[in-house]
C-alpha cells in the first residue's frame, strides 16, 4: 500500500531533550515536507526537500532540523524542544517531475507534547 | 509572501444542502491550487486540484474552478451528506515547490 509512515504517533517529552520524528514513504517521491498544525493557524510548513541532499526552509523552521540522506526518509529533529513546539506534526510527500503540480500524500500525524 | 484565505467556520448544514466554502489567494506567478480534506484523527487527503486558470477540479461530487481574475478557488458541492463532515483546507503550491495552506474550515452536516 502506498503510504507515508510517521513515528511515533504520540510523544510526550521534556524541555531540552533531543528527539527525532521519523517519516518514510514507499512511493519513490522526490518531494517531502514537514508541517505543523495548530488550532486557528492551519498548517504551516517547517522544511521541505525536493530531492536527496536538497532541503529548504519553510515558513517556521526555527528550532527544527531535517536531513534527506535517502529518498524515502525525511526525519524531523528537535535538538532542544520547547513547550511552544507542542503541536500536531504531519509529514507529506509528492512526485516532483517536470514541474507538474502533484498533490501531497500525508502521514497520519505525530502529536507532540513538550512539558 | 504567498497567502490563502478561507471563509471562517464552522459551517453547519443539513443533509442535501448546497455547500460553498470560499477560498482566495495571493501569490506571485501562477500557482497550482488544491483542496484537501481532513477527517477526525487522520491526516489530510487530496480532494481535488487545478493547475491553471479556468481549470475545474472535481472529485466525489465536489468541484472548484481556478479563477485567476478573482484569485479564487471556491469549493462547492450540490448535495452534502453526513459523511462529508470534516475539515477542508485550501492550498496553493508554487513551481518552486513551496506550499501555503489556509486555516481550514470545519463542516458539520446534520441528518
Structural commentary:
The complex is a heterodimer of chains A (115) and B (111). Chain A is mainly beta and 115 residues long. Helices cover 0% and strands 50% of the residues of chain A. In chain A, strand 5 (42-51) and strand 6 form a beta hairpin. By secondary structure, chain B is mainly β. Chain B starts with a strand and ends with a strand. Classes of the chains: A mainly beta (115), B mainly beta (111). Chain A binds chain B through residues 4, 31, 33, 35, 40-45, 48, 50, 56, 58-59, 90, 92, 96, 99-101, 103-109, and chain B through 1, 31-32, 34, 36, 42-46, 49, 51, 89, 91, 93, 95, 97-104.
SSE blueprint:
The complex is a heterodimer of chains A (115) and B (111).
Chain A: E1 4-7, E2 10-13, E3 19-25, E4 31-38, E5 42-51, E6 54-57, E7 65-66, E8 76-78, E9 87-94, E10 105-106, E11 110-114
Parallel strand pairs in A: 2-11
Antiparallel strand pairs in A: 1-3, 3-8, 4-5, 4-9, 5-6, 7-8, 9-10, 9-11
Chain B: E1 3-6, E2 11-14, E3 19-21, E4 23-26, E5 32-38, E6 44-50, E7 56-59, E8 62-65, E9 75-77, E10 86-93, E11 99-101, E12 105-110
Parallel strand pairs in B: 2-12
Antiparallel strand pairs in B: 1-4, 3-9, 5-6, 5-10, 7-8, 8-9, 10-11, 10-12
Amino acid at each position: 500500500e502506498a503510504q507515508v509512515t510517521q513515528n511515533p504517533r504520540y510523544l510526550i517529552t521534556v524541555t531540552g531533550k533531543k528527539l527525532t520524528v521519523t517519516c518514510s514513504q514507499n512511493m519513490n517521491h522526490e518531494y517531502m515536507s514537514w508541517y505543523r498544525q495548530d488550532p486557528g493557524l492551519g498548517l504551516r510548513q517547517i522544511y521541505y526537500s525536493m530531492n536527496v541532499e536538497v532541503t529548504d526552509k519553510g515558513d517556521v523552521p526555527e528550532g527544527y532540523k531535517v536531513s534527506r540522506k535517502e529518498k524515502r526518509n525525511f526525519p524531523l529533529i528537535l535538538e532542544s524542544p520547547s513547550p511552544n513546539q507542542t503541536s500536531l506534526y504531519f509529514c507529506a510527500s509528492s512526485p516532483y517531475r517536470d514541474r507538474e503540480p502533484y498533490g501531497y500524500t500525508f502521514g497520519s500525524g505525530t502529536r507532540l507534547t513538550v512539558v | 509572501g504567498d497567502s490563502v484565505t478561507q471563509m471562517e467556520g464552522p459551517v453547519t448544514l443539513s443533509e442535501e444542502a448546497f455547500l460553498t466554502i470560499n477560498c482566495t489567494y495571493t501569490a506571485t506567478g501562477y500557482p497550482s491550487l488544491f483542496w484537501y480534506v481532513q477527517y477526525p484523527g487522520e491526516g489530510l487527503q487530496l480532494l481535488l486540484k487545478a493547475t491553471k486558470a479556468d481549470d475545474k477540479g472535481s472529485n466525489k461530487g465536489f468541484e472548484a474552478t481556478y479563477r485567476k481574475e478573482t484569485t479564487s478557488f471556491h469549493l462547492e458541492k450540490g448535495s452534502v451528506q453526513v459523511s462529508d463532515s470534516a475539515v477542508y483546507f485550501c492550498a496553493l503550491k508554487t513551481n518552486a515547490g513551496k506550499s501555503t495552506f489556509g486555516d481550514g474550515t470545519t463542516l458539520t452536516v446534520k441528518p
